[in-house]
Amino acid sequence: MPLILAVLSLLAATPTQAAPPAGPLSITTRMMVEQRVAAADGTTRTRLVPATRVVPGDRVTIVVAYRNTGTAPIADLVLANPVPPSTVYRGPAAGSPAPDLVANGSQVRWRLTRPVAPGGGGELGFTAIVR
Amino acid sequence: MSKTGARKALIAGSAVAFVAAAGTAEAQSTAGTTAGTTISNTAQASYTVNGTSQTAQSNTATFVVDRKVNLTVIADQPGNILVNSGQTAAYARFKVTNNTNGIQDFHLAATQAISVAVLPGTDNYDLNNFKVFVDGNNNGTYDPGVDTMTYIDELAPDANIEVFIVGDVPAAQSTGLAFVGLDVIAATGGTSGTKGAVLIPTPLNTLNQDSEIDVVFADNDNDGVGFDIARNGQGWAYAAFEVRASNVALTVTKSANVISDDVSTLNPKALPGAIVEYCLKVTNGTTGVAADNVLLSDVVPANTTYVPGTIVIGAAASVLTDCTVSGYTQNDNGTQASGPYLGAYNATTKTITATIPTLSGNATVAASFRVKIN
Question: What's the whole-model pTM score?
Fold first, then answer.
């Protein structure tokens, strides 16, 4: 019995462990929201600003930036991002390749077919509507 | 256009259609994610370096859903509220719905100064003892002394509540209309039993933190030509208290005419055994106002016997000897015979009744019945 408990506690502890030692890949994420900006000529255009003022119905853009900080190329890169709760996936961000929608639409995933060279990186993104 | 170009155009077209459908789905959604909800995002990655599998996790980005203030106010009764002169605690019903993504208080203000033509007709009197109350016991009816709250406390997202504008109609008020308006103002909720302060939208230029809940007004212009404007955190609705004519000048005349006796056919007299026809003529002397459900009743005189099946109701005849013109013979038992009227004879009380569903202004309807002198 104490053995089983020990095993269970070990299993329970596993997800709360700190992130694995920093590898060569660094990823950062940020969330942006569309803001209408009136131009001097009277037209309006939208620009992305950090998501500070967001109300239901707004479209947010979630950006994932990755960079190879190591010295060897990175292969078979798969970036997965859960669609945040209380939002609904709408599509790829402007300029980003479309991700696969997996797990009943609760997660987006990009598979990079080409290796990421040392010092190389990029940005991927998708848009979602706040419910 | 090349084949590729045509295909691109098709794809673009389908993308537009998808966006339009998505817009519809959005409009059907309710008040939305509750204000103050933190939305966070973390990305994960897996990869290989020289054949060795590794994983990585990003930072967590967060923002807080802000308060999207929205409400609707409607007058919750069809048409005008019909009142009588001198009526106390007459009330108009309004329905206030909280479309905000959070619990809100709402202040209430009622006014009789409705200067614009938001309602048909002309406002020509004011109510006394003018007040506004919330339907505290939620029964849809104003209960004096029970519904005493003067502001809406803690209305949940998507919930609605009734509000009453209450007033007394002046005594001896002639026909007319009193217009009233209800202004509902969004206020801070969250503390039950406390009237929250009126919400102020966070200025667009304010530098805010992700963790703060901004206030954004998203309400529509609720009344078009009235006082309300879009995105002011308020909603307006209107109602009219109408005093209608409550009386008409009804007059009834009764006459008797001997129809026959056993002696003379030319000049019948009221002898025993003679048949006498009684004629009741009812006139509505008020132009333009109909009287509904006019009920005539008459007791058969002593020493006479009702002749069965002789109740006739119809338009009054102008000649003295006739009572009705093309009148409808009624059933004595009170069932509906042909024609719009209803007649009956009650053998116990010896009473003749005649019901006229509608008596138009300046119209006269007559009812006749016959008796035999014992």
Answer: 0.67
